[in-house]
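Researcher: Sequence recovery benchmark, item below. Answer with residues only.
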């Protein structure tokens, strides 16, 4: 656990880069801002290179998913460096993300179209049959995807599997898949059942419970689409997190509003329930009274409903309290909560969620599975899966199923269908048993050069460009970020408070750098002046010493000359005495001169 905490701390340290506000001129003539990581200034390109080196560490993403502490995994998933790495992985695997989006869109459109055909026309057409098979295909794809995710997580560790498959996102996925599959089965049962078809018109009789179920299934599929965008797109992640935080912050406001509306509904029901008939007033029904009060809170008012004086007084008090006081209080509360949420996200550098980490890692396993070298068991499992799925699709047709039922009987048909489903599950498990998060996968043969030339042709790239732009838009990624070396996706708006704090921090940093530069300049100037002054004093002292030496030498030379003249004029012992005295004087003078020097 300590090792895992230190590893996450390392990611946090690398993610805590501050805007150094320096400007570096690039080779192409443009400029780029610099960032400071542990006091080391780095450009955007250098920071991205550092992040890329971290992403290439052995078993990087599986090691993060293998951490047993859920809080540490969440902390690692919210770092900026991991967001950069996951964005790069999404760019590499955007084709697989497109298939997820395409199958989800097919399921949504076909389910809605089939439901609309059934509700509007009341009969079965060829268009409904086409949407029926596309719905089965999409549901089968999502079931296999979820099973593959569970299998790959199970290979890391059992705890990692349990920690990452019981989330609210997975619950939404399974509920949407289950409701869609249940709606398809219920629709087939209603169509093939004779008592549910009107004999006169030949249309299918749809009950209210079935309508409610199909509506709930449609809403669940839409919710699954929103959750998928929430996982892959950081802007949607930030929006939904802010929405949850706002709802949590105004919980007491909502409680007070609900209590006020419930009290007003009960009061209006007591006062107005027998004043009019049910056709004239909505307050005659106790259940409908709350709906009427909710409509009043939204501004839809019928003046004739309030005939008594006290009911009109309660109406005025309720509208003043709800429409004026509470609603005007709600606006600043929501703004304050949103500002607080975005500011905390910016200050804590929250740039992702664990769901995005699991999704990107699972896409990586699918890419390795597709590009890896398949074994014989995988090919056999694939053939068994395709054959079982085709036979099940044939059994899904009402005509074929009816013919087989008349010829073989219900029991034999049910037994064959059970065996086919068993073969389908076994083939999926056998194929996905080779799914792994790790990189040590033996890659298969590379595609031929003809295929590479075909994929890289201008025509294919022109046809794929709209899909490429669509995926970049859905994933919230900047296509030209790495080429331009700009900040791109990091330049997100995090609220006014965070923007002001960032500007103040930038201005303070610039002021500190300017002050440091001025102080350093003054110190250098002072040192230069002191050095010049010391050199000048030293020169003056040396000049004075040299002048003193010259004067002493002149005096000694004059004294020698005088002594020589004296010695030459007299040859008496007195000359010797004077000569000894002169030598003693010269000896005493020379040491003094050297000492003075």
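Model:
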């Amino acid at each position: 656990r300590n090792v895992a905490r230190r590893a996450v701390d390392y990611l946090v340290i690398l993610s805590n880069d501050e805007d150094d506000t320096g400007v570096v001129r690039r080779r192409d003539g443009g400029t780029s801002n610099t960032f400071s990581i542990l006091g080391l200034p780095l450009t955007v390109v250098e920071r991205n290179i550092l992040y890329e080196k971290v992403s290439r560490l052995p078993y990087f993403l599986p090691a993060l998913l293998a951490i047993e502490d859920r809080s540490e995994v969440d902390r690692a998933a919210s770092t900026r460096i991991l967001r950069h790495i996951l964005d790069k992985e999404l760019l590499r695997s955007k084709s697989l993300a497109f298939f997820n989006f395409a199958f989800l869109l097919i399921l949504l459109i076909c389910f809605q179209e089939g439901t609309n055909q059934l509700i509007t026309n009341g009969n079965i057409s060829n268009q409904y049959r086409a949407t029926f098979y596309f719905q089965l295909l999409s549901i089968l794809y999502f079931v296999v995807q979820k099973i593959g995710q569970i299998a790959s997580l199970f290979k890391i560790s059992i705890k990692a599997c349990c920690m990452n498959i019981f989330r609210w996102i997975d619950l939404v996925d399974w509920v949407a898949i289950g409701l869609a599959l249940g709606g398809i089965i219920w629709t087939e049962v209603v169509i093939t059942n004779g008592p549910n078809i009107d004999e006169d018109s030949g249309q299918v009789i749809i009950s209210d419970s079935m309508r409610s179920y199909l509506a709930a299934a449609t809403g669940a599929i839409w919710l699954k689409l929103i959750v998928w965008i929430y996982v892959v797109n950081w802007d949607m992640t930030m929006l939904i997190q802010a929405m949850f935080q706002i709802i949590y912050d105004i919980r007491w406001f909502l409680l007070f509003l609900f209590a006020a509306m419930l009290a007003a509904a009960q009061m209006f029901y007591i006062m107005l329930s027998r004043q009019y008939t049910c056709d004239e007033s909505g307050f005659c029904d106790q259940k409908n009274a709350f709906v009427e009060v909710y409509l009043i809170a939204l501004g839809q008012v019928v003046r004739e409903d309030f005939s008594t004086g006290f009911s009109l007084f309660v109406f005025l008090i309720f509208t003043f309290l709800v429409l004026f006081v509470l609603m005007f209080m709600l606006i600043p509360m929501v703004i304050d909560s949103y500002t607080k949420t975005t500011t905390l996200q910016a200050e804590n550098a929250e740039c992702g969620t664990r769901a995005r980490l699991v999704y990107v890692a699972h896409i990586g396993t699918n890419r390795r599975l597709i590009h890896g070298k398949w074994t014989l068991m995988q090919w056999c499992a694939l053939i068994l899966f395709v054959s079982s799925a085709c036979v099940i699709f044939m059994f899904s047709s009402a005509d074929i199923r009816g013919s087989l039922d008349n010829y073989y009987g219900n029991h034999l048909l049910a037994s064959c269908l059970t065996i086919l489903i068993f073969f389908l599950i076994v083939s999926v498990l056998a194929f996905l048993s080779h799914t792994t998060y790790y990189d040590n996968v033996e890659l298969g043969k590379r595609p031929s050069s003809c295929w590479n030339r075909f994929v890289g042709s201008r025509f294919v790239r022109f046809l794929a460009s709209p899909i490429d732009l669509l995926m970049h838009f859905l994933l919230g990624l900047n296509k030209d970020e790495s080429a331009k070396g700009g900040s791109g996706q990091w330049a997100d708006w995090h609220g006014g408070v965070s923007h002001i704090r960032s500007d103040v921090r930038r201005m303070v940093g610039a002021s500190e750098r300017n002050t440091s530069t001025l102080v350093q300049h003054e110190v250098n100037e002072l040192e230069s002046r002191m050095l010049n002054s010391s050199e000048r004093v030293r020169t003056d002292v040396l000049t004075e010493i040299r002048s003193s030496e010259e004067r002493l030498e002149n005096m000694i030379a004059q004294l020698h000359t005088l002594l020589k003249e004296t010695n030459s004029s007299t040859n008496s012992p007195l000359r010797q005495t004077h000569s000894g005295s002169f030598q003693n004087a010269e000896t005493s003078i020379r040491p003094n001169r050297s000492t003075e020097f």
